[in-house]
Design goal:
This protein is α+β, with helices and mostly antiparallel strands. It has two helices and three strands. The chain is elongated.
Amino acid sequence: MDKEFTTIDKDSNLLDVLNKMSSINAKVIPVVDDRNRLTGVITNLGLVNAISKIAPSPEVEEESIGMGDAV
C-alpha cells in the first residue's frame, strides 16, 4: 500500500515551510529536490531555531522592567 507524504521543496523559504507544517500539524517534513528525491528533513524545533536567528529580538531596557536599581 502506497502512502502519500507531504513534502517541501529544497528551495522553499522559511515562511513556506512554516505555513505548510502548521497547515498539516507536522512535527517533521521531508525536503525534496526537483527530482523528488529526499535531501533532508526539517523539524519543528529546527524551524523555530532558524526563525529565531533571523527574527528581530526586542531590546528590553532596565527601567521598562523595573530592574534599574536592582543589584
